[in-house]
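User: I'm curious whether this sequence folds into something compact or stays loose and floppy. Could you predict its structure so I can see for myself?
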Amino acid sequence: MIQGYSTFNKPISIGLNTLTFLCEIIQCCEQALNQNARRTLMNTTRKLMSCLIHEEAGDEAGI
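Assistant: Here's the prediction. I'll summarize afterward.
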């Protein structure tokens, strides 16, 4: 597990598979052919990270 801090300054743990998947999405963003595709992929990445942070926070809280 990778330990880190969310934007809310709460500790989170990210599994290596999840981290790898997110890195692949970010690499796709960098290789996007146009600005719209890059923007869409970045928004998707942000949404996934947001879901991950909430999921991890829920796990720690026993939800």
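Summary: The two ends are 20 Å apart (CA to CA). Residues 2-61 form one domain.
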